[in-house]
């Protein structure tokens, strides 16, 4: 994939249109005999036409619940939500007709042929058979599965199944494509192929909303994102803005013998702007990581390993919440 956070090809006036607006959006679950559980706790956000908007956070942060409310399959229990200016509670069918959804788990019919999965799905939208055939051929070409059109789905690789699910979600030519953890479980090569297809959709002006706990995925694809934790939004902005706002330019990762880690971190105090002691390593946030490493060694400390890297969205999350995305 070449470049990231490139401008959409949609006209500037169209990109300014708000397609989704949430104010104080909440979702509470109540079980008989148990305390109510709050999955989403009064969040505000908006999504504009032509942008890629992300929800970044660990499992259980409220990302998927928010997506289900946007997709009109789970009603909100507080606040307001408008999609295309309509209320999901009253206008669910009209909204869903203009959405494409890639669920977290593939729901393909594995005993059917690849192309038939798109044919059947297209009929759900009442599309004429001739239109479905034309779109199926075009979409399978787009996701690089045209040569597998007559194959059964079951033997396809995980990456191929994911691309087929994306093709299926586009059969109704949706205005918004919702993707819930689109590359979870895929190997790195398959993830990059999926990213490339999503990036091409973005360049065509398709509005994408995705959830992910992969910080590199969010950095590659998202124009803007919100960092969610425990049902709340901790921060919002473009990936590079969030990194600049909450982190130093570089991070020095140090590993010491586990029984010496805390003591070593104390000896290194004051070298970096901030120090985080994790179970397996010490993170030192500094604009000059190599300079920080030299200062560490000047104090007589010799780590088992040392790595200087740029700050990422995971560092943003750690700064905001005190824990990593994989906790």
TrEMBL record:
Pfam families in UniProt: ABC_tran
GO cellular component, one term: plasma membrane
ABC transporter domain span: 20-255
Record keywords, A-Z: Antibiotic resistance, ATP-binding, Cell membrane, Membrane, Nucleotide-binding, Translocase, Transport
Subcellular location: Cell membrane
InterPro entries in the record: AAA+_ATPase, ABC_transporter-like_ATP-bd, ABC_transporter-like_CS, ABC_transporter_ATP-binding, P-loop_NTPase
Signal peptide: none
UniProt keyword ATP-binding, yes or no: yes
UniProt record, GO biological process: response to antibiotic
Main subcellular location: membrane
Family statement: Belongs to the ABC transporter superfamily.
Protein name: ABC transporter ATP-binding protein
Organism: Actinocrinis puniceicyclus
Taxonomic lineage: Bacteria, Bacillati, Actinomycetota, Actinomycetes, Catenulisporales
